Amino acid sequence: MAESLGVAVIGAGMAGKAHAAAYRTASALYSPVLPQVRLVSIGDVNAEFGSLAARRFGYERNDASWQAIAEADDIDVVSVVIANSLHREVVEGLLAAGKHVLCEKPLSDTLDDARVMAEAARSAEARGTLARIGFTFRRTPGIAYIRDLIRNGTLGNVLHFSGRYWTDYGFSPAAPMSWRYKGGPGSGALADVGSHLTYVSEFLCGDIRSISGGRLTTAIDKRPLPLSAVMGHDHVAVSDTYEAVENDDYAAFNAEFASGAGSFEVSRVAAGHANSLQFEVFCENGGAKFDQRRPNEIQLFLNDGHGSRNGYRQVILGPDHPYIAGGLAMDAPEVGFGQNDAFGYQARAFLEEVAGLSDAESLPRCATFDEGVRNMELLGAVTESALNNGKKITL
Ligand SMILES: NC(=O)c1ccc[n+]([C@@H]2O[C@H](COP(=O)([O-])OP(=O)(O)OC[C@H]3O[C@@H](n4cnc5c(N)ncnc54)[C@H](O)[C@@H]3O)[C@@H](O)[C@H]2O)c1
Strand pairing of 208-217 and 61-63? Predict the structure, then answer.
């Protein structure tokens, strides 16, 4: 095992800060078995964002180009947390330089680029360099617990899944133009939050076999240009010059799993739902509900023969559930946790794999680039269905 691992994060935006904070805490989650983690650099073309994040999260420096990070001898592990259309160039450059890469979802903005990235990842892995993708919600304790209940037979085979990922970052027409509103059909809400929801659905229910009933809609077709750099979903002052929104504000579709069926809706214009990943999964022995707005609990229905007294029960998550025992500084029942903690578990899992800890000693591994391609194939099928009046697309 290496004596230490030098870490960098490329992108100091909304999710980049979550990665930067996660590497800070990763070695303090669970037993202290990781090599020393050195927080080396935050890379951002916006030097102000980069320098602020480096100071805030305790990184030694900031760099203004990804090439500087690729060339740096003191960096081993890099998170790539920038616009989807930039992932390919940066990831390929980093892998060629021998850096272990954790890339944000979706893997890229086009399926062709994603496939090339997966090829690069396979070659890199043959040289001992890892490339993984951060589908953060698999680290959400409630979601991981429902998966366990399905797999261990408590809930059993899935009959159907109903999922929505409603956000409202674009519901105001004054929300400024950003990279999120640019790209081909399916690169909007579908790629942004539909990537999470489809990944979660297969994580719980198994492989999707076909997609049908695809629909993509752009509700607000132009956006004002910002007068300063936009981070994440921030509302900055805007000019009176507008540019066209190129992609979807809303997407809906149906899916057929190997076992069971599903319906999906995603949106970035769902007023009042800032970050509502919600689903219900109905199984042969009962059902479960999850709502990201209440991440410390799930609702569980078990058909346990109580007839008229049966009903959904609230299960408060704690040390008896995935990730919590040892994974929070105070891991007592009902202490509460949220989405930022999931980034910590993700960073920990990636560092464990890079450090060479065995599967048995580690958290579940991060998803591979091949899984990232698979996810983009699903999103591509939704888009193809939508462009063909809801046609059934077999995967
Ligand atoms: N896992 C999650 O929950 C989650 C949440 C949000 C975003 N994301 C993903 O993270 C990625 C970034 O999203 P975001 O919301 O943080 O974006 P953002 O717009 O907030 O931040 C992007 C940052 O990248 C910087 N940048 C632009 N070009 C660059 C370049 N060539 N080199 C270095 N830096 C550059 C920008 O200055 C900006 O600070 C996307 O792939 C997105 O899908 C994941």
Answer: unpaired
Phi, psi for 333 (deg, rounded to 5): -60, 145
Q: Which residues in the chain come in under a pLDDT of 50?
A: none
Six-digit token string for 126: 């043959």
Q: Give, for ligand 1, the residue of 63, 104, 350 to mutate: max count of ligand atoms closer than 8 Å to Cβ.
A: 104
**Under CATH, which number does the domain 4-137+347-364 receive?**
3.40.50.720
Per-position b or e across 86-125, b if 16+ CB within 10 A of its CB: bbbebbbbbbebebbbbbbbbbbbbbebbbbbbebbeebe
Interatomic CA distance for residues 43 and 52, integer angstroms: 11
d(CA 81, CA 65): 13
CATH architecture assignment, domain 141-337+375-387: 2-Layer Sandwich (3.30)
Q: Which residues line ligand 1 (CB under 6 A)?
A: 10-16, 43-46, 49, 66, 81-82, 84, 86, 104-105, 134, 136, 192, 231-232
- Atom from ligand 1 closest to the CA of residue 191: 43
Dump pLDDT digits (tens) for 87-144.
999 999 999 999 999 999 999 999 999 999 999 999 999 999 999 999 999 999 999 9
* Shortest-distance Cα residue to atom 25 of ligand 1: 11
Quick one: which atom of ligand 1 is closest to the CA of 15? Answer: 16
Angle at 195 between CA 189 and CA 199, to 5 degrees: 150
Tokens encoding 128:
């001992």
The overall longest dimension of the chain from CA atoms, in Å, is: 66
Query: CATH 3.40.50.720 occupies which residues in the chain?
Result: 4-137+347-364
pLDDT digit string (tens) for 172-208?
Answer: 999 999 999 999 999 999 999 999 999 999 999 999 9
* Number of Cβ atoms within 10 Å of the Cβ of 321: 18
What's 334's DSSP letter?
T
CATH 3.30.360.10 domain span(s) along the chain: 141-337+375-387
Torsion sign, CA atoms 211, 342, 249, 92: negative
